[in-house]
Amino acid sequence: MPRDIQQAYKKGTRTFNGLPGSNYWQNKGIYNIQITAAPPDRTIKGSEQITYINNSPDTLKNLVIKLIQNIHKPGSSRNGDAQMDYLTDGVQIDACTVNGKSISFKENNYHLTWNTIRLSNPLLPKDSVKLSFDWHFKVSKESGREGMLDSTSFYLAYFYPRVAVYDDYHGWDRETFTDMQEFYNDFNDYHLSVQLPKNFITWATGTLENPRDVLNKEIADRLEKSMTSNDLIHIVTNEELIAKNITQQKDWNEWIFTSTHIPDVALCISDHYVWDAASVLVHDASQRRASVQAAFLDKSKDFHYMVGFAQHALDWFSHNWPGVAYPYPKMTVCQGFADMEYPMMVNDNSSEDTTFSRLVADHEIAHTYFPFYMGINEHRYPFMDEGWATTLELLIGRDENGKEKAEAFYKQFRVAGWINDKEASEDLPIITPATALGSSAGYGNNTYGKPSLGYLALIDYLGEDLFKKCLHAYMDRWNGKHPIPWDFFYSFNDASGQDLNWFWNNWFFSNNYIDFAIDKVEKSRKGFAVSIKNIGGYPAPFDLLITYEDNSSESLHQSPAIWKAQNKEANIQINSNKKIKTVQIKGGIFMDANEKDNFWKAE
Ligand SMILES: [Zn+2]
Question: Most buried residue, 46, 178, 267, 389, by most Cβ within 10 Å?
Fold first, then answer.
């Protein structure tokens, strides 16, 4: 445990049994945001009032404000290159007040995506401060996680000035946004008002509070009906879009969305996206349903299935893995270019390959749990969310596409790139903070495939029931909070009643990888002994496939338990009086860096 992290445990904000400590705290913001958009004009005007509550024991002399839209400004530090269409003038702050007093908010030339407000009256523990911002920015022409989808469709994310996270183990989050990081946000309450010209629709994080003020009666009736309908309802069809009689015919409509205890809000705006909806039961005991919606271009074939896909995903995730009821009232999948999650929102590409569209939607919806429900710090520990989304994508994929197809895809898409990586020097321990990895090949490996295999190896070791009990303990303890990797490790140790440090140390803290070899096969008293060398060192499970001279065969599953005492070599005793012909190590999804030495043949 690094010494900065140790401090949090010493201060009692976190505990060695994996529970939040008695001194645990986190700060909170209450955001009242009003924005105005009128595509094709790319200017977004915003105004917001923030109440920021300091629950920490510290007196805050400064506040750190994130201005993520400045990633589009020339000169901003960026992970990748930027085309002209990506660049904008960034965020212009037109006014800023602190406790009602106007202050000049200067841009910081050294790190454009955040800045500090010096408080003339420090913010005391258990006290709050009121901030306000008026701002405007131009939507980027090139659309990634946000931006212009077409001339009159926008996806807005990271669009409002927000107070950065101040936490118990790292203090202020002063991470420069380079387009690599995704989320690390406090759990805030949002009242979002979106002013749009008539005939524009918006889909956003939160509950639409005033559908009858903004939609015409028939459309509002359909939306209401969809909230209890299992069957797909076309809320707005292409013909209706062309007829331009969907919204109230006032010059401007004000769309109001509210959400509480949620890490972020995002929205999609269009005057020509069709709109589908249905709902799905996510919590049996309370009979709670969640609304499932999709907004897309009518010509996108795959998106016509999207509500059905998302209904299945919400149902499956709620009832199987992670087996926690979908925590929000709604999920909207919007067509864009990002393949990216936001709370209650997904921004996904359209694809000719509907199976792939579905996999991506499953993955992004899975992010509801990690990072959003669990408040993960993705800047530092993205394996705590992407590793899970990758695992859940495989688990739901087995149900949707069958085991063989899902695993073949997982191997090719999530594992092969890492295990066959020519840049293996960049293969650093998963625990390495992503802030230290930059955009190396190691970043992707540590974030997706490697940790996902680690979770799956542990399922193999503990068994599904015990693993799920541990996962639920971790999720119950830390949902709506800010867990760090040690909270996860300790929670599993505590809930399983086992010291799993041998596994964590190996899979998450070492440079190991997967590479087994058959060393020798020898006659023994009761049959024969197979010696396996663990060259890579990872405690991965595998099957030992044995064929006998009579052409019969058997497959012996080996759980990671065989690597618990030591991870150099394992001897597997096989009781049989038959003569052996071949022995083979079959790792399945646990791909081996060198498969050539995984096979033994009798002379
Ligand atoms: Zn992801």
Answer: 267
